[in-house]
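Could you show me some protein's one-letter sequence and the numbers that encode its backbone in two labelled lines?

___
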Amino acid sequence: MTDASEESKQIEKLYEFGERLSEAKDKSQNVKDYEGIIDASKTSLKAKQLAAQLIPRFFKFFPNLSSRALNAHFDLIEEEDLAVRVQAIRGLPLFCKDTKEYISKIVDILGQLLTAEEIVERDAVHKALMSVLRQDVKESLTALFKHIWNVEDPSQDDTIRDKVLCFIRDKVFPLKAELLRPQEEMERHITDLIKKSLGDVTGAEFRMFMDFLKSLSIFGEKAPPEHLKELIGIIEGQADLDSQFDVSDADHIDRLISCLFMALSFFVRGASGSKFLNYLNKHIIPVFDKLPEERKLDLLKALAEISPYTTPQDSRQILPSVVQLLKTYMPRRKTGEETNFTYVECLLFSFHHLAHKAPNASNSLCGYKIVTGQPSDRLGEDFSEYYKDFTERLSSVEDLTRATMKKLTQGMAEHNKAMAAAKSDEAKDSIKTQKQNTTTGLRTCNNILAMTKPLHSKTPTFIGDKSVNLSWKEAIKPSLPSSATATGVKRPATAANGSNNFATKKGQATSSLMHETEYDDYLNLENLLCT
């Protein structure tokens, strides 16, 4: 241990070195003084603190001593004493202020230091990183993102990766207007960095990145079609639409449905959903009956919400599958089996909007006689049996719907009585939930009757506007899918990367977006709507 007198001499000597360097016109001639500062970094604690200030301050004047200076300073960052470490961290941005070639190395070190446990140390790291980002945002972001997509040893680097992600989310993204200058160039650069990072992300991370990309001006409301196509391409890649579908792969179906809902806002803006629809038509709908029940609902909700934005060609291709599915859940005669009215609502809504864009496709599917003047009208063929079958199914589901509405209305009266008699807040909350489910059930039934009514005509007018509002849209403003527990194995979610949202990797977003209580509400509603 250094005694007080020895330490005092070391401090005094350091001040002398610093003063001579400050006063020197040609500082590069004072090599011995700078070497003395470097050597002092290995002496007493107070000397180390002062050296941590002086080494970076005069670093640019001694390129021949750069390796020695950096190594000495990096040793100070690993000191046991907190005050020394913090001072050394604060000095890191000075190394690259006038020597830009060190930016990548300094950012790499600061990225590793984000795992610091002491608050004052972590705060110093954050401030140092922001300082370097403002010096050269392009080079700094590139170095920072390497911690996300260049993990050689996941067991060691996952913590660093998660901390870097949190820093980018909490410190960089909110300051995009300040940091991303020139705007178009830097928005393109960070987009490319994000795209490179998506090969192995959790669902929460993917949503975070997509939300950020949507906020950039290059993807804003005035973005050209090719930019929307780029975003849809990113989501399509995440949904893994080029792979074969395995119905036992719960992660893939979760990811697919999450991506469908994520892509919806871009479909509304005119982006093509052809690849998604083709995948649904070819791989998912044929095995629909084998999907988990909660996934079926998510899928049908997604299909219903996308259907107003399909092209005529896509509508014509998927319409047969939708009609076949609709017949499955709209029996010709009462069978004693439960009818899932939410499924019927989704499918009728999809049918109307798809048929509105390809009306004569319904001739050979439902026996309608819609004339467009095209050979695909097939007016010379007799599809009367199809019409009879389809309208009988409509009548059957209408009878069931009216009976269910009667039960729901009676139930609502009972709920009102129960609410008036309820004493505890818990009982009132339970009754309130039941009333909300009953209200949604009544909306579902009303929607079904509104959509079946025009379909009894031999030349129906298909609903292609917003006159029917899907029942869950009023209850749940952001239209998100329900979910069971996320599954998958590539990268488990952590508190840092957003485990509250969804949880597996390959860039593979799973959709655990509904809390357990919400899922219970969904089950209660299905019990109300199944007769």
